[in-house]
Design a protein that fits this description.
7-stranded mixed β-sheet, Phenylalanyl-tRNA Synthetase, Chain B, domain 1, Phenylalanyl-tRNA Synthetase, Chain B, domain 3, single chain, 5 domains, 692 residues, alpha+beta, 5-stranded mixed β-sheet, 30 strands, 29% helix
């Protein structure tokens, strides 16, 4: 078959469209270097062999009868002789296991010299510093196969035994970067009979390193648990080419083939002699992943009309073998190097890559109200989007904070011990003290945002956040979404003639009224309460149809003094799932009323301690079906009124969709309302007026 002849630009474009982003191309005298951005799930592409597989998938050979076949891969040569000699070597893997396979091979008669020019040049191009021919070969094979290797000086191994184990408490090791590291029982090591000789999967120890006097090595090739390596890297603050690959998962089958490839090069370049004594220790058998793939599901998700044979051919190009299952389904066997594939949707994504994202149709679905079904998750997503539109159009900015906080951030809210927000969930391995616990409320994050803005002299802040909070109840873990907001300073000045409006509690309640009305929520109330982090006179709970959904109010004096905020701060927090329950996304259209509206004003004296929300609720309930709107438009107080009383004036709007309301009918409703106000709140009616 002829060689593939394409330009570097074309290949870069094809790879990027295939999901392997090319971020740079450098042309050298004899070679072209591609700089690739590999996503965390594609550990198999952290090697030249892995990228070659992708290219072979992109450029299949001509179609033959029975399907499309990939270009053949050119596997690096593996050929060496074994000498007739017996050497002592023991390998042991201790429980609990973090190493699933460990291969050890002895190679003698080595001549340690600088590497040949071609090897030095290739390593340098890939950003690896040449050291000596043995070390350079292990690094070169790492780049070829994606399998990290390590060479120990065999003569420096105590007892000629290798033990894969967890470190002992306060055990120390001098690593190849000349750093002495103190270990604990959660760190995996490779050891001999006396000491730790390497941090497993990360970096070797200096005491057993290959040097100019080395004549024999133990070549190590292993398969480690990615979670253990990732945790150790974070704890010790060290990252290497080896750990970078082990963290993402390596190929079980490569353990053996990479070691054999290194043996070939060690014989060819270093004049090494491979000893037959080798140990391939496995603590568990490798079981290939098998996934049942539904053909209809492929087409439903991708919006395509692919046939079964086409899908099987796409899978073949990816080296996925398949067998027939029940009708309309196939069983797919995943190759060992693709440890990112475990679900049916993963396979469908792979099919989309080979089929070509550009070939997947982009269609706009039709809106059919009569047949519309919205799942709970989709409904929450739609309400979230609607909330963001409402709040951003009201002048707020959305923020996204970390889901982690410190204990001090919660303690500052002065919550009682019985409050579930006080029961923090700690992280086992926190990055810092400030990020030690999962957040139980969004409010500390918003206060932190305000502090940061004030540092940059941004005093007018209106922000909101939608995010998860975490709690424990009855020994169960709960994760819920909340909507929270913070307002402080002055409102935006729209015109030079306008005076800026100072944000106060009424601004906050007006904002929430706007939000709830746009979500088609009407039966909501605010009830005064006491909350430890809010002002005792300006703290409220929000209810919808008797169900508490949130809290709002002015920040308490203690916190305001602690942070030294220049303006009053107003907060709200609402349980999003509760809000979604009462929100209405569907638009209901109705014809304009045929009969005119009539408006009446009613004014009365009322004790100041009675909430306006209760008054409005009573008026609406008493007014019945013809009372369409009830708005407070005037509040008045003077010396002639009894102490602790004030005057409220409401405008009531009436309409009967079936006929014109007469003055007498409206008067009857008005009298009913005044009687209810007098009876319920001891209100003193001042006057009633017909306005239209």
């Amino acid at each position: 078959m002829p060689k593939l002849k394409v330009s570097s630009q074309e290949l870069a474009e094809k790879l990027t469209n295939h999901g392997i982003e090319v971020t740079g191309i450098e042309s050298l005298e004899k070679d072209t270097v591609f700089e690739l951005e590999i996503t965390a799930n594609r550990g198999d592409c952290l090697s030249h062999l892995g990228i070659a597989r992708e290219i072979a998938t992109i450029y299949p050979a001509l179609a033959r009868k029975g399907g499309v076949y990939n270009l053949p891969l050119k596997i690096p040569p593996i050929k060496f002789k074994e000498i007739k000699k017996t050497v002592l070597l023991k390998i042991k893997i201790e429980k609990p296991y973090f190493c699933y396979r460990y291969f050890g091979q002895i190679i003698e008669g080595l001549k340690i010299t600088p590497s040949p020019a071609w090897l030095v040049e290739r390593l340098a191009i890939c950003g690896i510093r040449p050291i000596n021919n043995v070390i350079d070969i292990t690094n070169y094979v790492l780049l070829e196969f994606g399998q990290p290797l390590h060479a120990f000086d065999y003569s420096l191994l105590s007892g000629k035994e290798v033990i894969v184990r967890w470190a002992k408490e306060k055990e120390k090791i001098l690593t190849l970067d000349s750093q002495e590291r103190s270990l604990d029982k959660d760190i995996p090591v490779i050891a001999d009979q006396e000491k730790a000789i390497a941090l497993a999967g990360i970096i070797g120890g200096k005491e057993t390193a290959v040097n100019e006097n080395t004549q024999a090595i133990l070549l190590e090739s292993a398969n480690f648990d990615p979670r253990v390596i990732r945790r150790t890297v974070k704890k010790l603050g060290i990252t290497t080419e080896s750990s970078y690959r082990f963290e993402r998962g390596t190929d079980w089958e490569n353990v053996y083939s990479a070691a054999r490839r290194a043996s070939h090069l060690l014989e060819e370049i270093c004049e090494g002699k491979v000893v037959p004594k080798k140990i391939d220790l496995k603590v568990r058998p490798y079981v290939p992943v098998k996934i049942t793939l539904d053909i209809n599901q492929v087409n439903n998700l991708l919006g395509t009309k692919l046939k079964k044979n086409e899908i099987i051919n796409y899978l073949k190009r990816l080296n996925f073998s398949s067998s027939k299952g029940v009708k309309g389904k196939i069983t797919v066997k995943v190759p060992s190097y693709r440890n990112d594939i475990s679900l049916e949707v993963d396979l469908i994504e792979e099919i989309a890559r080979v089929y070509g994202y550009q070939n997947i149709p982009a269609e706009v679905g039709c809106f059919r109200p009569g047949n519309l079904f919205v799942s709970d998750r989709e409904r929450i997503s739609q309400v979230e989007k609607k909330i963001c539109q409402i709040l951003t159009s009201s002048g707020l900015n959305e923020v996204i904070n970390y889901s982690l906080l410190s204990r001090d951030a919660i303690d500052q809210l002065n919550l009682p011990s019985t409050d579930k927000r006080k029961k923090l969930i700690p992280l086992k391995n926190p990055l810092s003290q400030e990020m030690s616990f999962l957040r139980t409320t969004l409010i500390p994050g918003l206060l932190h945002n305000l502090v940061n803005n004030l540092r940059y002299n941004v005093e007018n802040v209106k922000i909101f956040e939608i995010g998860e909070v975490y709690s424990t109840a009855n020994n169960t873990f709960e994760e819920k979404k909340y909507l929270s907001g913070l307002l402080s300073g002055k409102d935006k000045i729209l015109h030079w003639k306008d005076k800026p409006q100072v944000i106060d509690f009424y601004y906050l309640s007006g904002l929430l009224d706007c939000l709830l009305r746009n979500l088609e929520i009407k039966n909501y109330q605010y009830q005064k309460t006491l909350l430890p982090y809010l002002h005792p006179e300006k703290a409220f709970e929000m209810f919808i149809q008797g169900q508490k959904i949130g809290e709002l109010g002015e920040l308490g004096p203690q916190l305001e003094k602690k942070y030294e905020f220049p303006e009053k701060v107003y907060l709200f927090e609402i349980e999003l799932e509760q809000l979604v329950t009462y929100a209405r996304l569907e638009k209901i259209y109705q014809s304009l009323p045929r009969y005119p509206f009539a408006q009446r004003d009613i004014s009365f004296l009322l004790p100041e301690n009675i909430l306006q929300e209760k008054v409005k609720s009573l008026i609406l309930r008493t007014g019945g079906e013809y009372l369409r709107e009830c708005e407070l438009f005037d509040l008045y107080k003077d010396e002639s009124m009894p102490p602790g009383w004030h005057s409220l004036t409401y405008r009531l709007t009436y309409c009967n969709p079936q006929a014109t309301l007469t003055a007498r009918e409206i008067e009857k409703i008005q009298e009913k309302i005044t009687s209810a106000l007098e009876k319920e709140f001891s209100a003193q009616i001042r006057w009633k007026k017909l306005t239209s």
